[in-house]
């Protein structure tokens, strides 16, 4: 595919790209990938962002923009705080900013563009790959568009707001993360365990596109196969044209056939491209057809776009033994998959480069998997393009609704789901839509499952992955009416695999299992954590994983059609990946993983060569014992003491953690590095820990809601919780108040919250009223809307 930039659309930043490039610097981060050093401020992500509707006339707006963070009520800033590198989210190191955005704040972007020379009737479209979460777009002070939903693309026709010369483009962003009502994926304001750092603002490519007065706005490409051996094929094409084009037709040309699309209602055009003896797309042979689509009036070409498509069929059918299984191209095909979160240590939601984006799929394919479950995140279009080209089945999750289902949550969930299905429809890699996950915000499951199937009958629907969940063989979430209207039954079982229930007409799949935690020193985001459903030492991982896969083979013989292992890469506090979070170390060699997977995925096709280090299998405790010996022999430099504290946490030596943290904190002097603060915060668990006073001092010097919440949680667990062992307890609140007084505002807030919850549980409305009133007046701004509403009703 061609990725030509037309130089005729001239755009610039007012200060000039060379001088601005000198103002950007990647911020310190606990881990960094190999691609971070390739990021340049003048042209990050310079590849064409939408390969299935490609034009030559486009201009990349990625690069340095000005930014500011204000209160929610503030108008457009007149003073800007510095530069942010687009398309990396605000919280990421690669943005050059690395700041948290609170729900009561707004993020602003600004840059200048120069209007291109345009023919009469031509239009200029402004495209955003994704902005998290809600945004308002202004050009020259005039609002030209808005969008809500942090994962889907949108565009705005800015033609009428343009003026000659320089134009000021401003973007205002609201991103409450888990404090809002919208789909947020794994993002939370207080990351821990299976939840991660938010990605606020622009996190995919921004670009301009010059189009004619009437232009092709959308393509929908649906492959269909028929015949006993699928020897007949056709591609159904639907296209939408924006603008008046009476008497126009659309011509679709591939290397093997041509079709003419004729006008239908609402600016739509439809047609069929017949393909005799089609070459089928599969992970082993991902054959793609090129496609050119032209909007014509007579013989004149008004608009032209390039695209591509793959011919493949996915279904649930009975095999020769009468067992319902997932079929690909008319044959049973075991979906051997892994659960991919799509997070990066240096870019968070945004991979450092397009090569990095591609690497994840290459690495997973090289491991011997044929399927990726893209877990409650929607990736940029180029990720799916790479999956199409490389050959990888994709189960695409909807991004879950707010679990509390506050007012508006259902509407934005369904709106974003509709946008997602339209946006990703043409990708042959996507074979399955996954509606809900483990009852997170589950509602109207039958209606929504049927809606998805009616909207896109070309794919399978997994109506609820993990609706039934087992952890350590204990059932956590029974569901008497599970998997209604879906194409499969799906169970989650941690850590060991098991089969889902057998139901007529449905395939049996294991939507998640595994989660074996293995920490690799010097390749960790959190140095005191190796979270997983079960933890294993590096030397024991291969055997444990091999045994799990032997069980998968037994389950496959009993009817299992798919398995999704958690997970390919470590992610922040989760260290249960087959590779480390920085994509540097593979915990089981690639060749060994392929051998393990061969029985369930015998046709792997061409495999990419992947550069990675094999893990060190030395017993971690032996390394730590050797370090202790060095310490006792007089090695006490700060860097070594810091490493000792980290390693003590890794091997579970609490006495060592306390000792070496106290020593290390004593060596720190302002200004403190990000790594220093992270280490102390992660290793502070009690009010008596040496880092607690240090964190209190940091909070006083730099108020920060995330740190405030961290201290609240420590005070609760260490001081308040022993007084309230159950909902019936009636503690001496005055005594508790004296205990938490030394801990300032975090202590006061958590005391009021604990007291409010306890009185609510006991339905003690008389004593609740004054407590709730004080809590709301002091800290109500931090409450979830539904919590706030309940308390307001009580007072």
UniProtKB/TrEMBL annotation:
Alphabetical list of SUPFAM superfamilies matching this protein: (Trans)glycosidases (SSF51445), beta-Galactosidase/glucuronidase domain (SSF49303), Galactose-binding domain-like (SSF49785)
Residue span(s) of domain Glycoside hydrolase family 2 catalytic: 359-466
Signal peptide: 1-21
Pfam families per record: Glyco_hydro_2, Glyco_hydro_2_C, Glyco_hydro_2_N
Keyword set, alphabetical order: Glycosidase, Hydrolase, Signal
Family assignment from sequence similarity: Belongs to the glycosyl hydrolase 2 family.
Protein name per Swiss-Prot or TrEMBL: Glycoside hydrolase family 2
Lineage, opening ranks: Bacteria, Pseudomonadati, Bacteroidota, Chitinophagia, Chitinophagales
